[in-house]
Design brief:
Blueprint (H helix, E strand, L loop, with lengths): L1 H8 L3 H29 L9 H22 L3 H25 L8 H20 L6
C-alpha cells in the first residue's frame, strides 16, 4: 500500500497537467452536447426520460463547463466537481439504459464511453490532487 501511495505523490507535474487538459477537453465536449440538445430540442430532449433526468442533463451544460474551467486553472475544486459530475452522470445514464430503456451496456456505445471517462476521472484524481491548488 505504501508503494502505491508513494507512487501517487511522485506523479510528474507534466502528467498531471496533461490529464487535466484531456479531462477538460472531454468535459467541454460533454457541455457542447448538452448545449446542443438544449438548443435543438429544448428542456425535454428525450421523450422517454423523466423530468428529473432532463433537469440533471440540462444542468450539465453549465457544470461541465465549470469543471473544465476549474481544471484548466489548476484548481482542486475542478477535479472534485468532475468526480461528482462523472459519478452522478454515470449513475443517471446507467439508470436510463437499464431502468427506462431496458437496454444493456454492450448495446450502448455512449454509455461505454461515459463509463470509461468516469473511471478515468475517478482513477486519476488521487494522482492529480497534489498538483492542484485550492
Amino acid at each position: 500500500m505504501h508503494a502505491v501511495i508513494g507512487w501517487m505523490h511522485r506523479t510528474p507535474r507534466t502528467v498531471a497537467i496533461l490529464a487535466c487538459v484531456i479531462a477538460s477537453v472531454l468535459l467541454f465536449v460533454g457541455a457542447v452536447a448538452h448545449i446542443t440538445d438544449l438548443l435543438h430540442r429544448g428542456l425535454h430532449p428525450y421523450d422517454w426520460a423523466p423530468d428529473w433526468l432532463h433537469l440533471y442533463w440540462s444542468s450539465l451544460a453549465v457544470l461541465d463547463l465549470l469543471a473544465a474551467a476549474l481544471l484548466l486553472n489548476g484548481k482542486r475544486h475542478g477535479v472534485d466537481l468532475a468526480c461528482a459530475i462523472m459519478t452522478t452522470d454515470a449513475a443517471a445514464n446507467w439508470y436510463a439504459v437499464y431502468g427506462i430503456q431496458h437496454s444493456d451496456f454492450l448495446a450502448q456505445p455512449s454509455l461505454q464511453r461515459l463509463t470509461a471517462f468516469a473511471l478515468l476521472v475517478l482513477g486519476a484524481t488521487p494522482f492529480l490532487r497534489k498538483h492542484l491548488t485550492n
